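Hey L., structure's done. Input below.
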Amino acid sequence: VGKGCGAGADCATLVCGGGNKCLAPTCFDGVKNGAETDTDCGGGMCKKCDVTLMCGTGTDCATGFCDGVCIHAPTCKALKSMGAPSGTSTIDPDGAGAGAPFDVYCEQDQSGGGWTLVIKADGSKNTFPYADAKWTDPNPYMADPTLDRKETKLQSFATVPVDEVLLGMEAPLG
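Output:
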């Protein structure tokens, strides 16, 4: 810092300022320098990094989740551990893998929370009969990750591992 320079590459901080002097790193200089994990973010000094930007730990990320790059939470249970309330959230079960993030409804208040909505079915309708192809088709059906009465099968049906099931029923019906 303070050393003469002709370009950013001449400086350890990669920032050559007015007067041709090397400048101290800042969180607004447009360069990944100092403790930053990506350009002007992370590292504990700058703002948290957005999804897909480099990170060292979850504390570098706006989402709180890091897999070499900032990612969305992998599950509703992971969001629960961060104190997220019930509602529609974006998750990404395979992290930085090929699968795209998607929206789900996360139930965080019932039975300990961390539940992921996978399907909404109305037993009085014939949308999801027993032998229907929708049960084995990995694609969503009328994807609507809200708690309303619209029948839907979400991306989470085929991509979120299941080891417990929370069944919600409406009573009285109507």
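Residues 118 and 157 are 5 Å apart (CA to CA). The mean pLDDT is 91.

-- N.
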